[in-house]
């Protein structure tokens, strides 16, 4: 652009016009901001905040108490805590909107109350969604929607925007985009509420005392699936999918179960069999075919959660409990017998060894009390290459069966201490080494004072 062609007078005129409009806008803003009506609105907002803070103390305390009382119901407790956190702004915004309604009836301006109320509405919605939604994408979506609606309402553009959405034309066809968006939001809300309700029902069933943990866990999973399935039907109907299409989809799903989903369906049936047979229950201590041992924490529709003593969670498909050989150490009786092998040197008094072994068993807390016929015993089980082989045979109490590694370590420790106390030797492996020379060796004895001389015949083996 050539600087010589710039019309200085035109630019100056535009700047003057803009400055004049800015002065008009600023004067109008100051006139409204410093008006008596605006001062009244600011005072009402401050009073609503103060009254809301005082009035929210009691419900906030009650909601937090309910959340702590029903901490086991995670979703319900989370709702109570979230409403406790927004109780102050919630009461304040109710008072602000009541004041705005009163101003409108009296014919007084209430623009300040409307702006503050809209912003607080959006903030409360965003806060509740953020506290109760674990997925960031959904909370972000609701935040964008809430702030957009608030901005349009403040700028008096909400109604024109709604009218525009109602009369949207796509490829010459009139489409009610507002209804479509509303149906999509209803579908999303239905899916979210279905999942929340399913989780709440599952937690409630698992916490009930009338059902055993295994039954409660599986029923909770089934209830969750039914609730989510109902939510899916509501969501599909809200966006206009007919029930006939759902029937076709169900048939296709059945074919999918027969082919691609047969493994999942097999695990589900296996879970039902486990539930009715009660071969594995929540709280049982089991040993998997791989040798891993652990405690059954959950029996779900597809898999069972097993937690080892190292706090490692293992998800085992339910059909593994039907097909493979799984050892349940606590199926009928948790008490069991273990054998702790040890060896002593040949020549050791066997009665002294028995005494040391029984003393070691008595010192370990895992040994069964009131033993009777299940008293500890010391058996001589073999004659090793360098030791007499014994076994300490002990019956364990119910808690010991869940800690096999620690139990064996404790008995080994006590055995070593008892053997040392009685001066019983734990032998090392002994071997006899016989050297067979290839031929005769000649030895010559020299006088002690004479210097040693090398004899070539003794340094080299005779040749044959």
UniProtKB/TrEMBL annotation:
SUPFAM superfamilies named among the record's database cross-references: Mechanosensitive channel protein MscS (YggB), C-terminal domain, Mechanosensitive channel protein MscS (YggB), transmembrane region, Sm-like ribonucleoproteins
Keywords associated with the record: Cell membrane, Membrane, Transmembrane, Transmembrane helix
Residues covered by the Mechanosensitive ion channel MscS C-terminal domain: 338-426
Mechanosensitive ion channel MscS domain span: 264-330
Region (Disordered): 437-464
Record-annotated membrane-spanning stretches: 33-55, 86-106, 112-130, 137-158, 178-197, 218-239, 245-276
Organism of derivation: Hyphomonas johnsonii MHS-2
Gene Ontology molecular functions: mechanosensitive monoatomic ion channel activity
Membrane topology, from the record: Multi-pass membrane protein
GO cellular component, one term: plasma membrane
InterPro entries: LSM_dom_sf (IPR010920), MS_channel_1st (IPR049142), MS_channel_C (IPR049278), MscS-like_channel (IPR052702), MscS_beta-dom_sf (IPR023408), MscS_channel_2nd (IPR006685), MscS_channel_C_sf (IPR011066), MscS_channel_TM-2 (IPR011014)
Lineage: Bacteria, Pseudomonadati, Pseudomonadota, Alphaproteobacteria, Hyphomonadales
Residues annotated as domain Mechanosensitive ion channel transmembrane helices 2/3: 222-262
Name of the protein: Small conductance mechanosensitive ion channel (MscS) family protein
Similarity-based family: Belongs to the MscS (TC 1.A.23) family.
One Pfam family of this chain: MS_channel_3rd
Subcellular location: Cell membrane
Source species, domain of life: Bacteria
């Amino acid at each position: 652009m050539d600087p010589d062609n710039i019309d200085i007078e035109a630019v100056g005129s535009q700047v003057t016009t803009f400055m004049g409009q800015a002065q008009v806008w600023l004067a109008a803003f100051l006139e409204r901001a410093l008006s008596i009506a605006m001062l009244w609105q600011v005072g009402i907002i401050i009073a609503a905040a103060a009254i809301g803070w005082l009035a929210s103390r009691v419900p906030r305390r009650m909601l937090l108490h309910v959340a702590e009382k029903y901490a086991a119901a995670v979703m319900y407790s989370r709702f109570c805590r979230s409403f406790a956190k927004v109780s102050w702004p919630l009461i304040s915004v109710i008072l602000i909107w009541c004041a705005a309604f009163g101003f409108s009836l009296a014919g007084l301006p209430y623009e300040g109350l409307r702006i503050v109320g809209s912003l607080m509405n959006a903030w409360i919605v965003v806060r509740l969604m953020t506290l109760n939604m674990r997925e960031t994408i959904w909370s972000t979506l609701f935040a964008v929607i809430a702030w957009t609606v608030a901005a349009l309402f403040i700028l008096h553009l909400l109604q024109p925007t709604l009218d525009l959405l109602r009369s949207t034309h796509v490829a010459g066809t009139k489409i009610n985009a507002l209804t479509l968006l509303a149906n999509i939001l209803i579908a999303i809300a239905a899916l979210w509420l279905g999942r929340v309700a399913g989780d709440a029902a599952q937690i409630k069933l698992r916490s009930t005392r009338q059902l055993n943990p295994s039954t409660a866990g599986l029923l909770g999973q089934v209830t969750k699936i039914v609730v989510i399935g109902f939510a899916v039907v509501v969501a599909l109907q809200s966006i206009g999918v007919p029930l006939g299409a759902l029937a076709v989809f169900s048939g296709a799903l059945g074919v999918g179960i027969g082919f691609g989903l047969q493994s999942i369906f097999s695990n589900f049936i296996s879970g039902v069999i486990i539930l009715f047979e009660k071969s594995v229950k929540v709280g049982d201590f089991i040993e998997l075919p791989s040798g891993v041992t652990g405690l059954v924490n959950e029996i779900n529709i597809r898999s069972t959660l097993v937690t080892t003593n190292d706090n490692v969670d293992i998800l085992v498909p339910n059909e593994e409990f039907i097909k493979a050989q799984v050892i349940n150490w606590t199926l009928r009786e948790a008490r069991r017998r273990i054998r702790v092998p040890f060896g002593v040197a040949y020549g050791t008094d066997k009665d002294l060894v028995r005494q040391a072994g029984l003393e070691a068993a008595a010192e370990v807390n895992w040994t069964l009390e009131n033993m009777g016929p299940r008293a500890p015993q010391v058996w001589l089980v073999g004659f090793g290459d360098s030791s007499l082989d014994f076994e300490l045979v002990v019956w364990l109490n119910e808690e010991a069966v869940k800690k096999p590694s620690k139990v064996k370590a404790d008995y080994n420790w006590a055995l070593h201490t008892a053997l040392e106390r009685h001066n019983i030797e734990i032998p090392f492996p002994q071997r006899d080494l016989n050297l067979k020379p290839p031929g005769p060796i000649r030895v010559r004895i020299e006088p002690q004072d004479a210097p040693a001389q090398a004899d070539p015949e003794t340094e080299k083996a005779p040749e044959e």
